């Protein structure tokens, strides 16, 4: 819960900056080793590689290099990783993903591990729904703001706005 609370803090900062409210923390068993939040979501072109997980993974590489064992790390993220982020997490050798809110439109953790090429194996442990309500609240706030056009009128938007 502690690390997910920190990921939610990153998501709140993203929301305050007018960005899609996704936050990510990569943690060793007892400390944060990298974090990130969504960037450039309001841009029409060029922002789709600036997901919170990708930013956190770049920071992990820069800060830690070979000083950490990837299998000992856990990714905490406020929205289920998309296929791009899911693949990047696996390629980095991180084998545990904890997320708050399911991405009904583009979540990548539902991939059948048996169908993945060897580069992406073994499959990670996935923990779903940790602090989900707090995350849903951030997405509702984002989509309720008519100035936020990112993913407006999508399945994810409708799903978030339909949550109680």
Short description:
The chain has 164 residues and is of the alpha/beta class.
Question: Topology, please?
Answer:
Blueprint: H1 2-16, E1 23-28, E2 31-37, H2 52-64, E3 74-79, H3 83-91, E4 96-101, E5 125-127, H4 132-144, H5 155-161
Parallel strand pairs: 3-4, 4-5
Antiparallel strand pairs: 1-2, 1-3
Helix pairs in contact: 1-4
Terminus-to-terminus distance? 22 Å
Number of helices: 5
Principal-axes geometry comes out as: globular
Radius of gyration: 15 Å
What does this structure look like?
This protein has 164 residues and is of the alpha/beta class. The longest helix has 15 residues, at 2-16. It contains five helices and five strands. Strand 1 (23-28) and strand 2 form a beta hairpin. The model has no long low-confidence stretch (mean pLDDT 93). The protein starts with a helix and ends with a helix.
Give me some keywords for this one.
164 residues, alpha/beta, 5-stranded mixed beta sheet, 5 helices
């Amino acid at each position: 819960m502690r690390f997910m609370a920190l990921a939610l803090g990153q998501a709140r900062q993203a929301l305050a900056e007018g960005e899609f409210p996704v936050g990510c923390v990569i943690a060793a068993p007892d400390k944060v080793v990298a974090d990130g939040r969504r960037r450039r979501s309001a841009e029409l072109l060029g922002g789709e590689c600036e997901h919170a997980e990708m930013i956190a993974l770049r920071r992990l590489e820069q800060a830690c290099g070979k000083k950490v064992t990837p299998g000992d790390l856990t990714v905490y993220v406020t929205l289920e990783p998309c296929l791009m982020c899911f693949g990047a997490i696996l390629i980095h050798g991180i084998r545990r993903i904890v997320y708050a809110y399911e991405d009904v439109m583009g979540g990548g953790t539902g991939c059948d591990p048996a169908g993945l090429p060897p580069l992406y194996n073994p499959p990670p442990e996935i923990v779903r729904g940790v602090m989900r309500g707090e995350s849903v609240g951030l997405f509702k706030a984002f989509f309720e703001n008519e100035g936020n056009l990112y993913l407006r009128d999508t399945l994810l938007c409708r799903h978030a706005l339909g949550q109680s």
